Amino acid sequence: EAKAKGRNTFHFYSQELDAAANERLYIENELRQAIKEGQFSLRYQPQIDSTTEQVVGYEALVRWYHPEKGFIAPTKFIPIAEATGMIVELGAWVLREACQFSARLRRSGRAADISVNLSARQFKDVELIEHIATTLKETGLSPQMLHLELTESMLMGDVEAAIEQLLEMKKLGVSLSIDDFGTGYSSLSYLKRFPVDVLKVDRSFVKDIPEDSNDMEITAAIIAMAQKLSMKVIAEGVETEEQVAFLQRNNCFIVQGYYYSAPLTEHEILLQSQHPDIGQAK
Ligand code: C2E
Ligand code: MG
Ligand code: MG
Ligand code: MG
């Protein structure tokens, strides 16, 4: 049989494949259990207006602490959750939890927007619009405080269908962002047709500023283009003061990254706003 033959011919290669396949299978099985048992939690990374150093929003990021394996990174399990469809249930949980968090912050007088990552599977789900509407209603969050993050690749397949879905989302009153902008293939002629409010400049362009002059050119160009299209810009993965200064000189004032803060628990955020000097990166 082909598989057995391959195993003899490419022994080591095949062993590696088996290990990868086993890990995938393991995560897949454990994910099912994790969803049932609620092993997930959220962290919230502040989005800062660098001119005032005020928090203007938070991005919700899912965390999985497995009872035996410990921390498993979202980059490892989100693609598997996506491929198996489990992301729909997990994503629904994330959305509700994030909306409740933002609604709680608002009630405590610390109103801030909340951004939630959507996966391709969720975006294509015929029940997405109704689901968002229900979640907003049940959590009492004002739609304009919710930002949904999509990626270019999710929009570029069936462009007309994507635009239609985006318009339906906009009708709910929520704000839309393109995440990791510049890493996917997207046609600039389509970009202006997408009813999107925010472009998030991917960390890969920001991380080597100021050493890499190409990255500086690209980042400046993305910011200028967003402004021409009347979109807001958020820079991701900002880690240094030089990066903040460069972004400011190029008219990007909202930033997210370790320079200001790593993703935090709700508890840390509540403590921080009682003592604003605690937990600052600088
Ligand atoms: P993303 O949406 O682009 O999120 C930003 C990622 O960059 C987060 O990684 C965040 O912790 C990390 N980050 C933020 N600031 C810095 C920095 O200054 N330096 C560095 N090196 N990294 C920084 P995380 O939490 O591991 O998430 C990775 C990706 O997993 C996310 O990328 C997003 O695509 C996906 N993801 C996370 N949570 C969810 C979720 O609830 N649903 C979906 N569908 N995807 C999620
Ligand atoms: Mg994101
Ligand atoms: Mg991103
Ligand atoms: Mg990114």
TrEMBL record:
Residues 24-277 form the EAL domain. It comes from the Bacteria. This is cyclic-guanylate-specific phosphodiesterase. It comes from Pseudoalteromonas rubra. The lineage of its organism: Bacteria, Pseudomonadati, Pseudomonadota, Gammaproteobacteria, Alteromonadales.
